Amino acid sequence: MSKYMVITNNPLVRSRLDDTHEVIYLELSYEELLKVVRDRIYEGHRLLTHPLSGSVKPKETPYKSVLISERKEKVDGESVRLIENAILVCQKFQDKSKYYKEEVYKDFQLVDWTLLESGLASADVW
């Protein structure tokens, strides 16, 4: 059993990991997904990947996948700081993701998957 779970709104991540990992798939916006992650952090989960990883600005991509600890402990101040700042940064950007052609969505899914894959590789060696 893994020591983490994946929270995502990316259907590609769900399809690739659903049989092998704990995946929480939610059909939410990028910002709404970050708020779900924030709520989990306040329950005692810890961030394992940065909520703003990658070079794509928030709201330019509709997809985000975040690793958090499976186990709850006391609230981690660094995780709180990171997720709260990520939400504030996200709120500064206008949502551009609804204006793309279908193939662009597939590209953004792949970008998010690739970023998550590197996080999974690190998480699996703990």
From TrEMBL:
Q: What is this protein called?
A: GrdX family protein
Kindly give the NCBIfam families that the UniProt entry links to this protein. Answer: GrdX
Instruction: Please give the superkingdom of this protein's source.
Output: Bacteria
* Organism listed in the record: Dorea amylophila
